[in-house]
Amino acid sequence: MTENFIGIDFGGTNIKIGCFSADLKLLWKTSIPTDAHMGPAVVIDRMVDTIKSMATNSKVPLATIKAIGIGSPGPAYYSQGILIRCANLPKFTDVPISKMLKKKLGKPVVLENDANAACYGEFVAGQGKNIKNMVFFTLGTGIGSGIISDGKLLRGSGDNAAELGHTIVNVNGRLCGCGQRGCAEAYASASNTARRATEVIEAGAKSSLKAILEKNGQITSKDVYEHLAKGDQLAKKITDETAEVLAVLCVNALHGTEPEKIVFAGGMIAAGKPLLNRITYYFKQHIWKIKQEDSVEICFATLGEDAGIIGAAALAREL
Ligand SMILES: [Zn+2]
């Protein structure tokens, strides 16, 4: 009998759901607003109703669905399928999400960290094809990450390994949202790249970005890269600093797990070659001089926003 798999990307704003064949061909996908304020029971019911109605409308019967994977922000007891609490999901405290979904749909469910799920998607269907060791970073509000070691996701003793965005790149440096000081995320996420630009402009630095700040009340990382392309010197300085922190992250990740590829994903990779070239440049500046690691490739992800649902479905396939 045909076996298909559901992958869910459970975000604070939207829930993306995709149905995949056993060889990960997309059969259908959809997205619904999360509406987390309605509480776990209602949100999970809406998820279940969506899966059932899509199964009917797409003519991929529910009976062919073998298992369900769900990627979610943490922290969570992933192996037990329990969300502990999520900043972007109010009312979701100690929610046994896997058990609730399993009860409603009668299928096995696996819960995974959202960055890990996207990492696994990119590993099985994107940049990670044909390799066994990969490090993955997603650059958005924060820096999510995942590590594939010898073909498997690294989960750690408490399911929360591979939080490389919170590795410290500057002792006693900028305060991070996590409470530590000097995390890579506090400098080089998309949000914090924009924030650093805002801070120096508010302190009096000259830049063509100043007009954007005055007009829109804020600067985004997209603005920074657009003004970099126009030759703005401050945008160049901010981009250099972001790239250097990301390069240091790569060096540290290399020493930790020796991947074949280090893959960047998330909204900020829209910056393209100017960002990738700078990361590669600084990586070569900071890399171990006693053993130059020419074999590691730093690149951008290829799956875009579907990485999360593909990865979650691929994890469900392994149940
Ligand atoms: Zn942190």
Report the total helices. 10
Number of domains: 2
**Average predicted confidence as pLDDT:** 94
CATH structural fold name of the largest domain? Nucleotidyltransferase, domain 5
| The CATH class of the largest domain | Alpha Beta
Residue ranges: pLDDT <50 for 5 or more in a row?
A: none
Q: From N to C, what is the helix and strand string?
A: EEEHEEEHEHEEEHHHHHEHEH
Shape: globular
Sheet bearing the most strands, described?
Answer: 5 strands, mixed
Describe this protein's structure.
This protein is α/β, with parallel strands linked by helices. It has two domains: 4-121 and 306-317, 2-Layer Sandwich (Nucleotidyltransferase, domain 5), CATH 3.30.420; 130-302, Nucleotidyltransferase, domain 5 (2-Layer Sandwich). It has ten helices and twelve strands. The strands form three sheets. The protein has a five-stranded mixed β-sheet. A hairpin with a 3-residue loop joins β1 and β2 (14-21). Zinc ion binds at residues 166, 176, 178, 180, 183, 185.
List the helices and strands and how they pair.
Blueprint (H helix, E strand, L loop, with lengths): L3 E7 L3 E8 L4 E8 L6 H19 L6 E8 L3 E2 L4 E2 L13 H9 L3 E5 H12 L8 E6 L3 E7 L2 E2 L31 H4 L1 H13 L6 H8 L4 H9 L3 H25 L3 E5 L7 H14 L10 E4 L6 H11 L2
The protein binds zinc ion.
